[in-house]
């Protein structure tokens, strides 16, 4: 019996929805599986998987994106715009230029993608030229230019473009200015823009919290975080909480950090390895090794960053024997150490009791670090633990945080 067209259409939508759902979860393998099982694929089906490749971290999936795009029977504007984003994400600016010039159809998103991509890749003059040549502009167009100038450090030009933006009720536009001034170290100007914002969103609050921490004003970061948690219209996310935990570490404000821990226990992300590692790092830096150890032992998944946080905590507080023992357990579990791990173990050998290290460490460094001196290792890339202040999950409203002094900002 032949299936009615309405049933076939519903089936296509269902399969496309499965691909889209997997992409939203970050499950690219699941998206590929759902795509492969879809017998009749529409352009929307291809676009969903293409978006997954565009969002994949790093530049490793660009070849897959290009191969998929070439298989689309009838690519539309969304197809071209997504591939354009893939070019910029992989650092292929020349490829993006070629694709844009060859696109048979362009919409405002196509132009905005070019402006944003060129700005982020340092081609600001070219981005300005593309902006000036746009047949139609919207708020995203102005956001891209202001954000690009702010990221480049040219805050005078960024403010000039900000003043000319036709729509000011735009949190993204204001947040670009806040972030730019925080990056420049001009905290006063960042505060002025934040206070003057007609509307604030989560990213706006995050820019203030992380900016204060970055500029060594952790107490202000904790105070803004408290105001944010008390705000019924916005809840903290990954970036917020990890930034404020770093502020707690800088102040040794372990009680405030403990309250954040209690907040996290209410969230689905309480089982996240990233969340656990952030808390382990905070407890270690505040000297609460027992709490850190208990949390570390309870973690369901522990990557190299989690092991590094605990090993470094033991090493920095003089527990060389425990650090070396944990290093051995790390190897036994098949977790490959990185240069941060070996730097922590080297710290043990330099500052711990002479008897704490009984034998040389024979595990090889990862290949990129072979031949590097201890000095070059110390000057190497920052610990991944330092990047944890950009990785957290959704928060919840809580008013139990203790008051933090220093009332420079009106929440």
Automatic annotation (TrEMBL):
Residue span of region Disordered? 359-392
UniProt keyword Repeat present: yes
One Pfam assignment: PPR
Q: Name one GO biological process term.
A: RNA modification
Question: InterPro entries of this UniProt entry?
Answer: PPR_At4g14850-like_plant (IPR046960), PPR_rpt (IPR002885), TPR-like_helical_dom_sf (IPR011990)
Q: Name the domain of life this protein comes from.
A: Eukaryota
Q: Which UniProt keywords apply?
A: Repeat, Transit peptide
One GO molecular-function entry: RNA binding
Q: What is this protein called?
A: Pentacotripeptide-repeat region of PRORP domain-containing protein
Species name: Panicum hallii var. hallii
């Amino acid at each position: 019996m032949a299936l009615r067209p309405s049933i076939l259409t519903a089936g296509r939508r269902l399969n496309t929805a499965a691909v889209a759902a997997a992409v939203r979860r970050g499950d690219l393998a699941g998206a590929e599986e759902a795509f492969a099982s879809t017998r009749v694929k529409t352009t929307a089906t291809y676009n969903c998987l293409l978006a997954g490749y565009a969002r994949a971290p790093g530049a490793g999936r660009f070849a897959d994106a290009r191969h998929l795009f070439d298989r689309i029977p009838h690519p539309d504007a969304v197809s071209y715009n997504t591939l354009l984003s893939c070019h910029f994400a992989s650092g292929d600016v020349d490829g993006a230029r070629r694709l844009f010039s060859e696109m048979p159809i362009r919409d405002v998103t196509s132009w905005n993608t070019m402006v944003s991509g060129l700005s982020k890749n340092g081609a600001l003059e070219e981005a300005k030229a593309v902006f000036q040549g746009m047949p139609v502009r919207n708020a995203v167009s102005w956001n891209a230019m202001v954000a690009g100038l702010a990221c480049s450090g040219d805050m005078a030009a960024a403010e000039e473009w900000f003043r000319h933006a036709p729509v000011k009720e735009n949190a993204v536009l204001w947040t670009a200015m806040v972030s730019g001034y925080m990056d420049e170290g001009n905290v006063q100007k960042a505060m002025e823009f934040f206070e003057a914002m007609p509307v604030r969103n989560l990213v706006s609050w995050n820019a203030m919290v992380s900016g204060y921490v970055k500029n060594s004003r952790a107490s202000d970061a904790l105070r803004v975080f408290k105001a944010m948690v008390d705000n019924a219209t916005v809840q903290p996310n990954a970036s917020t909480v990890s930034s404020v935990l770093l502020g707690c570490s800088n102040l040794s404000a372990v009680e405030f950090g403990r309250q954040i821990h209690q907040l996290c226990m209410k969230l689905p992300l309480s089982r996240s390895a990233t969340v656990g590692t952030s808390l382990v790092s905070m407890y270690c830096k505040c000297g609460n090794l027992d709490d850190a150890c208990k949390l570390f032992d309870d973690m369901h998944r522990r990557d190299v960053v989690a092991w590094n946080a605990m090993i470094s905590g033991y090493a920095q507080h003089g527990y060389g024997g425990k650090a070396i023992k944990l290093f051995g357990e790390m190897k036994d579990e098949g977790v490959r150490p990185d240069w941060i791990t070996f730097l922590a173990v080297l710290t043990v050998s330099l500052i711990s009791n002479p008897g704490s290290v009984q034998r040389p460490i024979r595990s090889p460094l990862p290949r990129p670090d072979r031949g590097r001196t201890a000095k070059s290792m110390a000057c190497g890339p920052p610990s991944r633990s330092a990047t944890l202040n950009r990785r957290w999950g959704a928060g919840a409203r809580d008013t139990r945080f203790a008051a933090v002094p220093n009332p420079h900002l009106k929440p």
